[in-house]
Description:
Number of domains: 1
Strand order of the largest sheet: 2-1-3-4-5
Oligomer: single chain
CATH topology: Cytidine Deaminase, domain 2
Strand content: 5-15%
Low-confidence stretches: 159-182
Order of helices and strands: HEEHEHEEHH
CATH architecture: 3-Layer(aba) Sandwich
Bound molecules: tetrahydrodeoxyuridine
Radius of gyration: 17 Å
Distance between the termini: 18 Å
Mean pLDDT: 85
Structural class: alpha+beta
Number of strands: 5
Amino acid sequence: MGHVHTIDWETLQSSAFEMVRRSYAPYSGYPVGAAAVTIDGRTVTGCNVENVSSGLTLCAETVLVGNLFALGGGRLRAVAVVDGAGRPIAPCGRCRQVLYEHGGPDLLVAGPDGPWTMATLLPHPFGPDDLARRGRPVTTGPERLPGPPAGLPEGHRALGAGETGEPGDGDRGRSDDAGPVR
Ligand code: THU
């Protein structure tokens, strides 16, 4: 993926398609893969994980969001969700809400005829601002954490200032004890 400003949809969709192989979908026989790029250029992925108690099934997008936080957190910029043939599918309603939390209305979502925005898929959303209206502040950014954020796991560091993630970018801007960018 690399570059922060342009979305390489082909790469994102093939990362999502790779996740189809890891899917656990013995009941529906409908594997789903998801891949997203964060605003700081990292890729996070997920696949659906079904359960014999059907309502407990995890959609690929919810697993992706779990992986996002397991890998240091951050904001989503673009996401692709694909079926067993690698074709983009529309996220289910619950997953639109789950993705909205971490990408907002500008999150780009792969569609069959080009990207949608989350604003198109989830108009009139219920969001953090609605809770904040109670008069109690809602903190969703890294400042919500009690101490300095833990470093990203090996191989999943956030890009440093001035880094694009392009090959040859070297370690410019890297700081080994920098926390994740959220
Ligand atoms: N599924 C997803 O993983 N994401 C969606 O947005 C739509 C549905 C999964 C859940 C279930 O394992 C299978 O697809 C069939 O519904």
